[in-house]
Amino acid sequence: MELAGETRVLGSQVSERTEKMDQLKHIITERQPIVGAAVGSGMSAAAVEAGGADLLMVLSAGYFRLHGINSMASLMPYRNANHLTWETATRYVIPRIKHTPIFLGVCAQDPYLNLESYLPAIKSSGMVGITNFPSVGFIDGEYRRALEDTGMGFEREVEMLAEAKKHGLLTISFCFTKMSKDAPCLLGEEFDHHVMDSMSRA
Questions:
Q1: What's the rounded Cα separation, in Å, for the pair 180 and 142?
Q2: What's the rounded Cα separation, in Å, for the pair 42 and 52?
Q3: pLDDT (tens digit, 9 = 90+) per residue, 40-88?
Q4: C-alpha–C-alpha distance, residues 159 and 108, integer Å
Q5: What is the rounded (10 degree) CA torsion for 152, 156, 107, 20?
Q6: The pLDDT of residue 14 is above 90
Q7: Does residue 43 form part of some domain?
Q8: Distance CA 103, CA 132 (A)
């Protein structure tokens, strides 16, 4: 997967994000509610930051919603999810965010995804972590079984999250059942945060 675009994070931004990260970690440790938002543009990201959100997630679903399309479009083969979120994050979101921690949605099933190069690129861009989105957890039935049987199932997402931790990134895991919720917990990261299925119908 080739990475397009160039992102420069200023020293003052790094300092502000470090402070915000410390606050976020404290919130998680104290098990307090976290206010986060999935965004698909620099304008929406800036508005969310101005509103005081604890974190931002750059997801393909946010991009489609911005264009008046249902979030479910992010589960269809309309665009390359990883190219879309990388471009949105690096070109439009990061340059407009001063201090709010940014998590990038990553599709673990992308056959061209090279985590050994992609994860360091995410970290060096100034983003603090990733989340497993799009996720096969939104899919069930025969199609889901076929994905699992061919090695493109939820386990690949868990492995990706584990690899992200090794690279010093935080993770937010989309979970759908008790079994899938427990899997990321076994990774042992004290700041790992879990989000149960909350796909918007709007």
A1: 18
A2: 16
A3: 999 999 999 999 999 999 999 988 988 899 888 998 888 899 999 999 9
A4: 9
A5: 170
A6: no
A7: yes
A8: 10
Q: Cα(92)–Cα(110) distance, rounded to whole angstroms?
A: 23
SS3 state of residue 56: strand
75: which residues sit within 8 A by CB, 6+ positions away?
134, 138, 139
**CATH of residue 91:** 3.20.20.70
| Domain total in the chain | 1
**76: amino acid identity, one letter:** M
pTM for the complete prediction?
Answer: 0.82
pLDDT tens sequence across 147-175: 999 999 999 999 999 999 999 898 998 88
Q: Say how many C-beta atoms besides its own lie within 10 A of residue 114's C-beta.
A: 10
Answer yes or no: is 50 within a domain: yes
Here the tokens at position 150 are: 């061919």
Domain around 123: 30-138+168-196
The reply to whether 81 falls in a domain is yes
> What residues are paired with 173 via a beta bridge?
194
Contact 64, 134 (CB under 8 A): no
* Beta bridge partners of residue 55, listed in sequence order: 36
| Residue 189 covered by a domain | yes
Element (H, E) at 62: helix 60-66
Phi and psi at residue 38, in whole multiples of 5°?
-90, 125
